[in-house]
Amino acid sequence: MPTLLPGSVDTAGQRATLGVLGGGQLGRMFVHAAQRLGYFTAVLEPDAKSPAGLVSHHHIQTAYDDLAGLAELARLCQAVTTEFENVPAQALQTLAQTRPVAPSAAVVGIAQNRIEEKAHFAACADVSGVTCAPYAVLETPADLQAVLDERADLLPGILKTARMGYDGKGQVRVKTTAELAAAWAELAGVACVLEKMLPLTAECSVLVARGWDGQVVSFAPQRNVHIDGILAVTHAYAGNMPSALAERARAAAVSIAQHLGYVGVLCVEFFVVEDGSEHGGLVVNEMAPRPHNSGHYTIDACDASQFDLQVHAMAGLPLPQPRQHSPAIMLNLLGDVWFGADGQRQEPDWLGVLRLPGTHLHLYGKEQARPGRKMGHLTITGPDVASVKTVARRAAELLGLPGLDSI
Ligand code: ATP
Ligand code: MG
């Protein structure tokens, strides 16, 4: 991959342009980071009013697998990335015939399928030092029967569709063999994994960026609080989790990225479980082949954000080791914030929130607020952890956010 210099113009007068498949909020923040460095941007996204399409120089409004749309993206851009792991891997493959694509279709394909993803985690467990939760693959009625007969140890468990799950969608919690059989039938017998329900004491994630040349940098692990399967709060500061555990998670994520030959930004999610040891055991949950919601705090609390590193990695620029300059807490803003206790639509108290010190409001430009829909996030930074927590609690109260007791 030749380096694509920021702000450059080629002999035909074409501006250095970076492309992204998908127009959601991750694409929007990628576009912001790329434009800050002087790149032009192109977004391929069917939705006319998508968060990223609204702010990009070019918006190609076609389906992700539309060949004419993909050809236009390749014509406009010198390198392409994705912001959405459910973009068809075939689309990335098509683009890769003529343009550098990072991450590659092959690794996105692995991350898109929980069965392949878990096989990858198992394949590098010796190097990464972590395994995933006990699980079984359900692809055929015979697989179901075998699990019903022989894997009572996986119950209570979570049945997860192998493909297209996010924010807890495509998941059913099952306690008994009867519930398992009913849940799989309800999911129309699509390929699934049944995962044992683990007693989690915490969850964390690690962001890694790796360049074409194999250079790797990473952020310290952030601790995440999920409510109803959706990320609610991210704690990003020294002491957010025991340091031995944090070091293990960071090293494991780096080795998982290296083992994949990954190029771009990768997020690896972990569970911390009670296992009788002093700090608990670390279990790898899943990975996202892109920047991640739990890394949004890096925009306001670090000298290089996860989106800056995504731009650097795909353009072949040096990857700076990011440094966090402020402790931070990130609060997700779901559509629920736009509705009062009576169910009536309301404008959230932004003025009250913005009056508080160290609040950084990010709204993604989505028109329709719906319960559970990610509309924006609020990052709170400050001089020390205690003051960040005080402001975060106050902001959560003003906005009526859940998860107050976790701050
Ligand atoms: P996303 O892509 O938004 O991270 P997802 O829909 O892919 O989420 P998972 O990360 O698999 O789903 O699960 C969502 C949440 O459900 C986890 O963060 C965790 O809180 C809980 N969960 C998932 N699997 C288990 C498990 N085996 N034991 C206990 N809790 C679990
Ligand atoms: Mg997850």
Question: Could you walk me through the main structural features you see in this protein, from its secondary elements to its overall organization?
Answer:
- There is one protein chain.
- With 407 residues, this protein is α+β, with helices and mostly antiparallel strands.
- The chain folds into 3 domains: 17-101, Rossmann fold (3-Layer(aba) Sandwich); 134-196, Dna Ligase, domain 1 (2-Layer Sandwich); 200-402, ATP-grasp fold, B domain (D-amino Acid Aminotransferase, Chain A, domain 1, 2-Layer Sandwich).
- It is 30% helix and 25% strand.
- It has helices at residues 25-36, 67-76, 89-96, 105-111, 114-123, 125-128, 141-150, 177-186, 243-260, 298-301, 306-315, 350-355, 385-399, and strands spanning 17-21, 40-44, 58-60, 79-82, 131-132, 135-138, 157-161, 171-174, 192-196, 200-210, 216-218, 222-227, 230-236, 264-273, 281-288, 328-334, 359-363, 374-381.
- Helix 1 (25-36) crosses helix 11 (306-315) and helix 3 (89-96) packs antiparallel against helix 4.
- It is globular, with a radius of gyration of 21 Å.
- The relative contact order is 0.11.
- The model has no long low-confidence stretch (mean pLDDT 94).
- The site of magnesium ion (MG) has 3 residues, from strand 15.
